[in-house]
Amino acid sequence: MFKRIISSLLVCVIAVSFSITCFADTSMQVVKKEVDVPPNLVVLGDSIAAGVGLEGYTGTDNGPKGCYASILAEKYTKELPESCTMKLSNKAVSGFTSDDLLGSLTNASLDKYVLSSSAIVISIGGNDIMRPALDFVENDLGLKTPEDMKNFSKAKLMLPSNLVKINEKLEQISTNLQKFASNLDKIIGYIRDKAPNTVIVMQTVYNPLDSNESLAMISQTIGEKIDELNKIINDHAKKENGEQNYIVCDVHTAFAGKSSEYTNIDKYDIHPNAEGHKVISELVDKQLRTSKYSFEEMVEVKSDDSKTPKMSNTRIYITVGLFFGGFFILFALVFIKFKRSTH
After folding, report:
1. Residue 264 forms beta bridges with which residues?
2. Which has the closest alpha carbon to 131: 164, 90, 91, 180?
3. Rounded distance, CA 178 to CA 125, Å?
4. What pLDDT shows up at residue 324?
5. Quick check: 207 and 223 in contact, CB under 8 A?
6. Are 296 and 32 in contact (CB under 8 A)?
7. For residues 41 and 287, what is the distance between their CA atoms, to the nearest angstrom?
């Protein structure tokens, strides 16, 4: 009887040992999977990207729900596979100029976001032009509220003192545009150096005053400067050798003649309203989808060299446990038998 037990246990141990050998070639590996939208979206730039003017804006998170960045994040979360977590990092700051954005990049405060990005969307340049223009409108013309705008006399623009101020502001804007061109190359260069494979989308700038009749002269003048800025954005989209620097998202054309529809300008606020953000989200989405993206996932990989069935790591651990358990029982029985035979 004892011999039969020993023989059975030996057969079990041999079988278990064989199963370990058969199934031990399964492993967990990192696999890249392709998707149509960016799993890690980073938004940089100014108040437009930050969501200023929308309900719920606080300036301390990824922007309000109606912000175009948040709209895209919600859309992509639903579209991406369950195994891929959508991440949005909206680091746009109200009031930022191209100088400010370049400074934030070069002081490395944005590195962790840039390095992990799948795509980076940038809205910058508007304040390089609008800051001097709004300074003139608010401080020299005294237009600080919607009521001031209603009571404004166009003749005030033609006062000699204001014409001098206008020329001064235009010179300042021209200087800012020259610096913008230099800053833009440095901004893109820095991002490309840190994240050479990330997709970059650069938005053009719209004219928020193009539907305001009382400021038609200023709107036309500012519009010309905005055209110059957008020409810089388009001209710098490719390197001299034809290689792409970034993708241009033409917000300007979509908003042309519709500032009263897509912005809060009727409330004396140049920022996009909820409808404007929807339009921008659609424009950016279209450009982001011109590229492909990927994410990494841990999967169980089976060896191509073996045609035997495969076992998960958990089952392997159980098998190993059974093997050593059986061996221990076998050893104990042999030891007890030996002890009995010596008495």
Report:
1. none
2. 180
3. 11
4. 53
5. yes
6. yes
7. 13
CA angle 237, 274, 279 (to 5 degrees): 35
Rounded Cα distance, 172 and 128, in Å: 9
**CA distance between the termini of the chain:** 20
Distance CA 30, CA 163 (A): 65
Residue type at 320?
V
- Name the nearest CA neighbour of 175 among 98, 266, 281, 118: 98
Nearest to 205 by CA among 249, 173, 268: 249
Given phi > 0 = left and psi -120 to 50 = alpha, else beta, which region is 283? alpha
| H-run or E-run covering 111 | helix 111-115
Q: What are phi and psi of 268, to 5 degrees?
A: 60, 40
Which stretches of the chain score pLDDT less than 70? Answer: 1-26, 139-144, 146, 148-158, 162, 212-215, 303-343
Domain ranges for the chain? 2-26+303-341, 32-297
Which residues 6+ apart lie within 8 Å of 47 measured at CB? 53, 92, 93, 94, 95, 96, 127, 271
Identify each DSSP E strand in 126-267 by its residue range.
Answer: 199-203, 247-249
Class of domain 32-297: alpha beta
Please give the sequence-ordered ranges of beta strands (E in DSSP) within 185-285, or none if there are none: 199-203, 247-249
Q: Rounded to an integer, what distance in angstroms lies between the CA atom of residue 138 and that of residue 291?
A: 43
**Coil, strand or helix at 220:** helix
Between CA 61 and CA 25 the distance in angstroms is 46
Task: Determine how β-strand 27-35 pairs with β-strand 293-301.
Answer: antiparallel
Q: What span, in angstroms and rounded, lies between the C-alpha atoms of 197 and 187?
A: 15
Judged by phi (left if over 0) then psi (alpha if -120 to 50, else beta), residue 142 lies in: left
State how far the Cα of 59 lies from the Cα of 161, in Å rounded to an integer: 38
Task: Specify the pLDDT at position 10.
Answer: 47
pTM value surpassing 0.85: no
pLDDT of the residue at 334 = 47
